[in-house]
Amino acid sequence: MTKELLIFGSSGALGNGVTEVLLKKQYDNIYLFDFKHKDRSNPNVKLITINDLSEELNIKKAFAQITPSREKIFYLFSTVGGFYGGKNIWETEIGYFDRMINMNLKTSFLIAKYFSLLVKDSHSGSICLTAAYTGLDAEAGKAAYGISKAGVIHLIKTLSEEGKKINLSANAIAPYIIDTPANREWMKDADFEKWITPEDIGEFVNSLFQNYQAVSGNICQMMDHLSNNN
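and the corresponding structure tokens:
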């Protein structure tokens, strides 16, 4: 049985750190999806260029490059998404709302749809999407973002139930804040040592995949690191 890993958004601030971790794990083949790629000196890595992920045809063409098999277990992690905030609901332009739905929910739905079709014709599989803490607990000034991420959470919950028919487990991470250059610039006075790193997320996602047959339907909140003080 071969293990095949798919990573969407592999070259972004989150995706790059996650990818560096997962490249060192025991996967037979790894497919990296993004609109641009970093050099990867790994013979088992295939780079797949994909642009607008909210267009179904683009997703369909990307998945057409992967061959299903009853001798393959497929795993997928998606970092794809975007953030918009700082406005009350009555100040939010509908264009920004649509953008959040497209970037966070529609892309996740399409990725989940075509991954499900791949797994359906294979041995089994597991998917992990990136939700957000705001999708679980509303925060002022983040309505469009929170609504789109809440949709991702509902998507995972539904897919976990439907996935039982095709040997597919589904989970999501829901980080509060991730240690990326953009977030450091945005919150310059924060204690960065407490923040969850992309590498932390990579290790955690790998642990989900290693236990994919027993773990499904979970929205895993990832908050600050615990203090080392005794």
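(Above: one complete record from the training split.) DSSP finds seven helices and seven strands in the chain.
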